[in-house]
């Protein structure tokens, strides 16, 4: 995210993009950042403190095997749009598509070793990326590890933190100063 923020700071959107489109881009991006943040909190509420010990297959994990990464993708694209740089949104989407498959492969290897046939059945019934809404189910209640959930909240918020930093720089005039360097 630091690289994305640096790119946004020093590389403005192409001048051929109409200003009105950039305003719409900012609003759409901010909406995606909200969706990403709320989605990441939802995922965190299921996996905080149990991620490597329990095979979580309920809530957001009942519809997709990697809902946290889906929300990461939404947040990354949302950030690029929110800082009024559709090129950055495209670059972040591409970086995500290149980087995350290897992360997921490694995680799936660990889960296969830990949960064996149970994880294989879960993989067979639950798509990796695109949610299958008809699969949704959740327990009547579940336990949350408060210290881990609280610690995870800071990580969940990084999309909004980055956008907040951007807005402060933009509104203070510091963004124009930085780009003038």
Description:
The protein is mainly alpha-helical. It has one domain (about 1-10, about 20-180): Four Helix Bundle (Hemerythrin (Met), subunit A). It has eight helices and no strands. The chain has helices spanning about 1-10, 20-45, 60-65, 65-80, 85-125, 145-155, 160-170, 175-180. α2 packs antiparallel against α7 and α4 packs parallel to α7 (about 160-170). The chain is elongated, with a radius of gyration of 19 Å.
Kindly report how far apart the N and C termini lie: 22 Å
Largest sheet: none
Stated plainly, the CATH topology is called: Four Helix Bundle (Hemerythrin (Met), subunit A)
CATH architecture, by name, is Up-down Bundle
Q: What is the count of DSSP helices, taking H or I runs of 4+ residues?
A: 8
What is the tally of beta strands? 0
Q: Which structural category do the helix and sheet elements fall into?
A: mainly alpha
Would you state the CATH class? Answer: Mainly Alpha
Shape, per Cα inertia axes = elongated
How many domains, in number, for the residues? 1
Tell me the quaternary state.
Answer: single chain
Q: What Rg do the Cα atoms give?
A: 19 Å
**Average pLDDT taken over every residue:** 91
N-to-C SSE string, H for helix and E for strand: HHHHHHHH
């Amino acid at each position: 995210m630091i690289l994305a923020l640096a790119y946004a700071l020093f590389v403005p959107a192409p001048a051929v993009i109409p200003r009105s489109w950039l305003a719409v881009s900012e609003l759409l991006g901010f909406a995606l950042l909200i969706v990403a943040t709320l989605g990441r909190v939802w995922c965190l509420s299921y996996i905080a403190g149990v991620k490597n010990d329990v095979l979580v297959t309920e809530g957001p994990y009942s519809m997709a095997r990697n809902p946290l990464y889906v929300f990461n993708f939404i947040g990354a694209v949302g950030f690029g749009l929110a800082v009024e740089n559709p090129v950055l949104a495209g670059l972040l989407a591409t970086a995500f598509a290149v980087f995350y498959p290897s992360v997921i492969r490694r995680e799936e290897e660990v889960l296969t070793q830990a949960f064996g046939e149970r994880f294989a059945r879960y993989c067979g019934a639950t798509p990796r990326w695109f949610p299958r809404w008809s699969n949704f189910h959740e327990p009547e209640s579940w336990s949350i590890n408060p210290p881990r959930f609280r610690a995870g909240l800071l990580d969940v918020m990084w999309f909004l933190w980055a956008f907040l930093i951007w807005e402060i720089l933009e509104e203070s005039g510091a963004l124009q100063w930085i780009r003038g360097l």
